[in-house]
Design brief:
The chain is mainly α. It has 4 helices and no strands. It is elongated, with a radius of gyration of 35 Å.
């Protein structure tokens, strides 16, 4: 006996189907990529600075003599720029995280409205199936009660416990069905 008929598969839309949320995700992903590139360039610049030999003369002395003294000066300026850019990207990413939190809520609400009919259909299907289980359980309980009323030692049948369903009159099945009805998904 089939309790639930097979239906077409429903695919829950991704949050990124909502334009505002998708734009923020795209911006975040772009910044993450840029952040990685800046950090890699920063590490390379730091390595170049470490590998540059110490100047033979102080910069001021070298300038008075018309010579160059520190080939790492330009590298240090570049490192400072990269460090500032790294901090700015981190701040932008944090701002995007906060904006994504707000946009996620709005996008979720829109998607929930698209999913509501399918969710209701599935809740109702579960409620119907559980009511069928409740009916079968009632039949089982009746049979077991008959055995006990006749004082039959029925342990040889290998009794199966249905305690996981909760109490037979107000257990898990009844609670689920009641909640489904209260939510308006099952009549």
């Amino acid at each position: 006996m089939a309790i639930v008929a097979k239906t077409a598969e429903f695919i829950v839309p991704a949050l990124t189907t909502q334009p505002e949320y998708a734009a923020l995700v795209e911006k975040r992903d772009s910044l993450i990529g840029r952040h990685s590139a800046v950090r890699a360039e920063r590490r390379e610049t730091e390595k170049q600075i470490r590998e540059t030999p110490a100047p033979a003369l102080r910069r001021g002395v070298a300038e008075l003599l018309g010579e160059t003294s520190d080939s790492s000066t330009a590298l240090r300026a570049k490192l400072a720029e990269l460090t500032t850019l790294d901090r700015d990207i981190e701040a932008a990413l944090e701002e995007l995280r906060q904006r994504l939190t707000g946009a996620r809520s709005a996008a979720s609400k829109a998607i929930i409205e698209v999913c509501r009919p399918e969710y209701g259909r599935r809740v109702a299907a579960v409620a119907r199936a559980l009511e069928a289980v409740a009916a079968v359980r009632a039949s089982y309980d009746d049979f077991r009660d008959q055995l006990e009323r006749e004082d039959i030692s029925w342990g040889g049948l290998g009794p199966v416990s249905l305690h996981f369903l909760g109490e037979h009159r107000d257990g898990h099945i009844q609670r689920f069905v009641r909640e489904a009805k209260e939510a308006g998904y099952y009549a």
